[in-house]
UniProtKB/TrEMBL annotation:
Record key words, sorted: Membrane, Transmembrane, Transmembrane helix
Transmembrane region(s): 49-72, 78-98, 129-153, 173-191, 198-221, 269-287
The name this protein goes by in its record: ABC-2 type transport system permease protein
Keyword Transmembrane tagged: yes
Organism the protein comes from: Micromonospora mirobrigensis
Length: 295
């Protein structure tokens, strides 16, 4: 009778006996990784160039406005107005960051690993969305904070002046949050439709920029009602219209006139439209990843 030739080797594999951190920890880790990815942190130097170029441009603009105010006492732009003025840069930031967050995962086929427990499908999409919203809010809110610090140190009214500046800053930060939520919702939804980052980036830019001529066409129609509702046709002007209604004079430096959009009495309608747009994009994003996970 021949002896068995098979041999079992103990190579030291052991069962994991540490803590099971669960769903919340996975969501938080994915969210934090998404924020870092949006700014190119933890990635190659090439991936950091564009995000930090945008950060640098926004910081220079904010520093310039702060310097003019400190030197001449002239408010170049309000905190809320800063978000309006820099919206075009935010569009290109979204066009780069959103595909990095989701299109790369689609192309590389790692989603089945993400969707294994304890991370549900919806948590993946929501974590990515929260990361992009945070990145955009920091992009706009950071320079606003720089403007606030410059104004606070140069005010001649002591603590009362600092308090007044803070009251102006807070609506500006909330307004930046509105820009972040709307832009991130649209950008991430478009990016989730393709695994090719170039196509995703082009689609995002097209959604934001190609709708602007529609606004221009509607705004010169002979109907005053159509003119006032024209800003519904583009995400950028939609957010601006909500800001014009909700913030009013905070969008315009003191002593200047104009600057708000001619929306008539349709301000509440614009606010509802913005909420519906965000809710619709988030719903479609969740449905999209339910479909992807089923493959």
């Amino acid at each position: 009778m021949s002896e068995p030739t098979g041999v079992i080797h103990d190579i030291g594999y052991q069962r994991y006996t540490g803590p099971r951190l669960g769903r919340g920890h996975v969501f938080g880790a994915l969210y934090l990784h998404g924020v870092r990815t949006a700014f190119g942190l933890g990635r190659s130097a090439k991936a950091k160039i564009f995000p930090w170029l945008v950060v640098g441009v926004l910081t220079v603009v904010a520093a310039g406005a702060t310097a003019v105010r400190a030197q001449f006492g002239q408010v170049v732009m309000t905190y809320a107005q800063f978000a309006d003025a820099m919206a075009w840069l935010v569009i290109f930031f979204v066009a780069v960051a959103a595909p990095e967050l989701v299109s790369r995962d689609l192309r590389s086929g790692v989603l089945p690993l993400y969707f294994s427990r304890p991370l549900p499908r919806g948590d993946y999409a929501l974590a990515k969305l929260a990361a992009l919203v945070t990145a955009l809010w920091l992009l706009l809110g950071g320079p606003q904070l720089l403007m606030f610090l410059g104004a606070a140190f140069s005010t001649g009214d002591g603590m009362r002046g600092v308090w007044n500046e803070l009251l102006d800053l807070l609506p500006g930060l909330l307004y930046a949050g509105l820009w972040a939520v709307v832009f991130a919702s649209i950008g991430l939804l478009v990016a989730s439709l393709t695994g090719k980052r170039a196509f995703a980036a082009g689609g995002i830019v097209a959604v934001f920029l190609m709708t602007t001529p529609i606004v221009g066409t509607l705004s010169i129609m002979p109907s005053a009602t159509v003119n006032q509702l024209a800003f519904l046709a583009s995400p950028s002007t939609l957010v601006g219209a909500v800001g014009s209604w909700a913030l009013g004079d905070l969008l315009v430096p003191e002593g200047q006139r104009g600057g708000t959009m001619p929306i008539g009495g349709f301000g509440p309608l614009y606010a509802v439209a913005a909420a519906v747009l965000v809710a619709g994009c988030v719903t479609l994003l969740l449905l999209r990843y339910r479909k992807v996970a089923a493959r």
